[in-house]
């Protein structure tokens, strides 16, 4: 049975103020007794779900509650006689889960599925019955929740449990919404479990479900789950934090007076706004206490300002910074740059004349709904132009086919992609927790710059991560990248808004280097690289071997080529630093041994020669067209590159006098070629042919 039932009054002090003020907390035992009695009339909602109806109508005034009535009757009848471990009627659990979602603003279809989420698993009700009574959409969600709940939550089964949970979430994000509310109610009622089982459930909640709630933007659930986990896993720190909050409750709180001042400022400015004092939850107070040491009265909460339009947010910010002393280091604009979990707000802090520093959050009311409820506030992401709770969307026709979710965040798509290739449960479990620990996301653009050409990556991701996100296993042959038009190494980290062009080798035998693992951040990249290296142990060892000495190929060396010095019997040498060729303007200088070295007139060595007093010698070119030149080529490392370059040089009819290839550095290779050209006029074509070799990104004169 999915619900971990215990005493509903366990840890009451750990519950933050999440519900609307003025609403009486439900007595689940009373609801359970009401559920057993059944409805008093067939034409109105049973009393047991009156609170659910009230919360739902607060967000959706025109909602049709008849489907909720039918779902409740089916659930109550199916679960009748079943009891929770605390002795309560089992129907109290789906009622509590549905109330949590109703208060977050979930739409009718989600609430209907929530009431029925345990019926298929724990009763004789079948999916076919749910589909016949409530339609394919509700059936699809109930089936997704059931697949998650059927898994054993033992330690060995946890990786596979959450793998299936991810797949179900990818098919419909409302499945995870119900699962999170289900876990919250079970955590609220965890008190009668054995301590070791409480700790195990709390650890899984901390490691996976709380990060998932954060990723889905459901802050209201996330904060309460954090407090409940905190009370179980860190009881001593929890008690000290509770005592700290209790001691503050008996002191004078400066935040209400600061809120009054903010109201006065905004009223004088003609800005319609609602100003609230929001107490911090237990874990937040604990974090602030560890960071700041001794807490002051204004540290136990924050000021929340709600306005109507986005422009009003910035107007409020201007008034606050004008009438109070702003703490500039605390300013963050999450409206212009929303968080990856849809969160938008302005964050700032202001100092009062009394010396208090108050944190202020400014957002619109719609932003506030999304900040509290995340994806739950988005309603049905699969709805057509005329939503219907019992509609039959095309995507629901095949339960095994993944549906296209226009609101699916990038992190979820990444998880769904790599979970299929995770080699074993332990790898999946460890990488899942590492991925969920990422608290920031960036978006980079493909070279076409289109909105559909975006790649979502965790903060700190490199070009390697972008390559595997875009090309999958074909990224094994990636040899370099251009970021914002500039060539860069694959290890280069990316920033939000960068434009990335990934360069792939044409050689199918190309593979990643072991060093790529040092720069890959995403699970997809790390798993793919590790798998390739495991299947190519000889190549893996080669990429990690010690740096090799430069490879040199030397042919017959000449002297001055077709340069002639106006000095009888002098030996003429073309300078290797600038390798002049006809018709370059040149200058000659007499050096030791009576030789004349020839430089291009703009070579830096010319000024040095003159500075040290070297004798200048006039130099001119012979009438012959052949010449010698040294070219430097820069490329990304790949197999057969040297062979391809020398072949391109040979096709141009050019002789290689000498060649030097330096060891790769971050997959980049530097080549130096001294070449004998039959005609200096062919130099431009030669350089173009060398640049056309795959992997070569620059060719220039030495």
Could you please describe the fold and organization of this structure?
With 702 residues, the chain is α+β, with helices and mostly antiparallel strands. Helices cover 41% and strands 16% of the residues. The chain is built from 25 helices and 22 strands. The strands form five sheets. Strands 1, 2, 3, 4, 5 and 6 form a six-stranded mixed sheet that branches. It has a five-stranded mixed sheet with strand order 8-7-11-9-10. The chain has a five-stranded antiparallel sheet with strand order 12-20-21-19-22, covered by helices on one side. Strand 15 (586-590) and strand 16 form a beta hairpin. Helix 3 (66-79) runs parallel beside helix 5. The longest helix is centred in the N-terminal third of the chain and has 21 residues, at 195-215. The relative contact order is 0.06.
* Morphology: elongated
Report on the biggest sheet. 6 strands, mixed
- Tally of strands: 22
Specify the helix fraction band.
40-55%
Distance between the termini: 75 Å
| Oligomeric nature of the chains | single chain
Can you tell me the residue ranges where pLDDT is under 50 for at least 5 consecutive residues? 1-44, 151-156, 384-408, 542-549, 551-558
- Give the count of helical stretches: 25
Mean pLDDT figure: 77
| Rg from alpha-carbon coordinates | 35 Å
Which structural class matches the secondary elements?
alpha+beta
SS strand fraction: 15-25%
Chain-wise SSE layout:
Blueprint: H1 28-37, H2 50-59, H3 66-79, H4 92-104, H5 108-115, H6 119-122, H7 127-134, H8 136-149, H9 158-171, H10 173-188, H11 195-215, H12 219-233, H13 235-249, H14 255-268, E1 274-279, H15 282-292, E2 301-307, H16 310-323, E3 325-326, E4 332-333, E5 346-351, E6 357-364, H17 365-373, H18 410-419, H19 425-436, E7 441-446, E8 454-458, H20 463-471, E9 478-483, E10 486-488, E11 499-504, H21 523-535, H22 537-543, E12 551-554, E13 563-565, E14 572-574, E15 586-590, E16 596-600, H23 604-611, E17 616-617, E18 619-621, E19 627-636, H24 641-651, E20 655-661, E21 668-677, H25 683-691, E22 696-701
Parallel strand pairs: 2-6, 7-11, 14-16
Antiparallel strand pairs: 1-2, 3-5, 4-5, 5-6, 7-8, 9-10, 9-11, 12-20, 13-18, 15-16, 15-17, 19-21, 19-22, 20-21
Helix pairs in contact: 1-4, 2-4, 3-5, 4-5, 4-10, 5-8, 7-8, 8-9, 8-10, 9-10, 9-18, 9-19, 10-11, 10-12, 11-12, 12-13, 13-15
